[in-house]
Amino acid sequence: MSSKQSKFSELRRHAERVLGIPESAPESVSAKTWVEHNLVASWPSVKNYVIGLFPFLQWAPRYNLTWLIGDLIAGITVGMVLVPQSLSYAKLANLPSEYGLYSSFIGVLCYAFFATSKDVSIGPVAVMSLETGNIVTDVLKKHGDKYTAPEIATCLAFICGCVVLAIGLFRVGWIIEFIPQPAVSGFMTGSALNIAAGQVPALLGLAKRLDTRAATYKVIINTLKNLPHCSLDAAFGIPALFLLYALKYTFTYLPKRYPKFARPAFFLMALRHAFTIILFTIISWRMNIHHKTPRIALVGTVPSGLKHVGQPMITGELLGAIGAHIPVATIILLLEHISIAKSFGRLNGYKINPNQELIAIGVNNTLGSVFSAYPSTGSFSRSALKSKSGVRTPAAGIPTGVCVLIALYALAPAFYYIPNATLSALIIHAVADLVASPKQSFGFWRVSPLEYLIFVGAVLWSVFYTIESGIYWSLATSVVLLLFRIARPKGHFLGRVKIQPESPETGVVRDVYVPLGEHDGVTNRDIPVEAPPPGIVIYRFEESFLYPNASYINGRLVEYVKKHTRRGKDMSTVPKGDRPWNDPGPKPSAAHAEYEAEKSKPRLRAVVLDFTGVANLDTTGVQNLIDTKVEVERWADRTVEFHFCGILSPWIRRALIAGGFGQGQPRSGTALEVAPVVPQENSRSPVDERRIERAITGDGSNTPITGSPSTSDFKGLDHGSVDFKTEHVTELYAESGSVEKRGIRRGSDGASSHLSQNTLPLLDRATPFFHFDLADALNSLDLSKGHD
Length: 788
What we know:
The protein is an alpha/beta fold. It folds into 3 domains: 63-484, no CATH class; 492-573 and 594-658, Transcription Regulator spoIIAA (2-Layer Sandwich); 674-761, no CATH class. It contains 28 helices and 13 strands. A hairpin with a 5-residue loop joins strand 10 and strand 11 (752-754). Residues 534-661 form the STAS domain.
């Protein structure tokens, strides 16, 4: 049995040598830990996942009369706005008006059971309706009458719903975070301009004279050319638009002048859409009731009830026809809804679950396709109305759905006389709120000029081409900007500034580290920055150290070292034949001056890397650190210490250890950062317990596992460093099966005394080149300076 064990041990050692595993290495986080934390699902986590799919289970048992009143008021108010908007948005989608009502009915009902936002109102929206109309038009051009517009739209809703549902179920909703706010505002603004320009011809009765689906600038030019041909429809469009804005500004101004009328004014303003539709529908009815042929363009016959319930048509050919448009349609569903939900969550003090919101949108569109609904998502205008109406829970969508059903079954005959020009006025009035204000646009410029260019580009692409091109521009430029920021990070070489409170007696002087030799735009430019101790280079990262930027940072570090430190080996005496092929050496005329300049520079001792801004470190980054170490050591012709501070992740520590960093024996006198501990039972981690077990020898003798520096460690301190070091170390002894902690204080005289407060090293002593912060790293170098 022992021979088998020895063979196994020998085989294991051989495998470790082949894999390059060191015989002894500091403890670090393991891959098993990552798998257990991220991939292994426990029963409670599975249970929470399933329950989380139905958020209404959390608030429904606590539903009460107060919530019911608030939800009824908000739901009915939104319903009275949703019905006319649904009729008008169906026009944008190139669908009969009833399909807007189908989408509204199923959207608000489904969302009530899956939502994590109480304020968002689901249903047809302008941008998604416009994109649906563009897709319907494109498929009809290619396939003629083989498919109807509703079949195309419902198939699109089902496919987009499945994609969004999958994103939510697999919890990958974070992908939408790659699109910044300026990009979203850019294509939303461009889309709003596109929609408004496309509705002006219908507002003036010119819709049949030009292509309203052309590029925005072409629609504007053609509309201006055809102004002399305006028809009677303009009498139902322009006054309706004027009335909408008049009511809006009147009821916005009224509460400022008469605060006691604020609540009635708000609800009257919310009902302006319904009032305008009713008013102009009555006028249209009186004008056309005795004419067989309507004198203006009307909505026409709207069938009562749900007449088109059934399985959506999904064929391979139809999927191929709409396949190229699915990415853009899906992006619109995701971005518009999540941005609205997050906005109202921040406004009203609650946090949404983005993945669950995507599940709600996915269920809404997949199930809605059975009721012939076209793609729908969150509406900003209706969500704002719902929020201000005093909504209490997502259940407010139920009375909204009831309002839509009542309209479908009871009011369908009255929809016949609604003027198309009035619906166009409603659309223009609604999308005007999507246009970014000058203040918001200038805010993008002030925060980030590059992101402002993304915003402007998205608007221009949407106006001069299509909204799809605007979305693709936003995506592409956002990704390029993100990659550029990662690939060219703005790291800094640091120097030291001593600061103190304005009243010296109230505080102590301390060191802070700021960019050296350049004004960073943050600190006061009139304060001089002291260079680090001679031969020490300090560099602070501002991004993760990954393969896109590893070579760039390597080049910066090596270039800086060669510029500010002298070569360790005098190359002036090296024959030309022994020089590297790429090192011609100094010209004879400049050799002496260059030698004197180099002689005044210090010789490189150590490189200190501040990893406070590093969230991730990959293989390429580690390899470039190794390359950097090799290059600077070749330049200095000596061993150069690499110190690291501010390591935020155990995986970064693991990667650095794997690259050979952090370990070894410093020259001498490395300070040990310590922290007090409270001796309590069960207060140690499993790692601490394992370390203690290793400290206890088999014979029960006292075995210290931490050391302490000698008094010589504190000699040779330069100006500005401390002349007295206090170190708390912990010695663990095995005595009678127990572990004893002893606090030790050491001063410049070498004396030590036990402290009442126990302490332990803050960082693992096996990695003396890893430090908590820059001050600790520089202190350790100060201690060893005298032994350089």
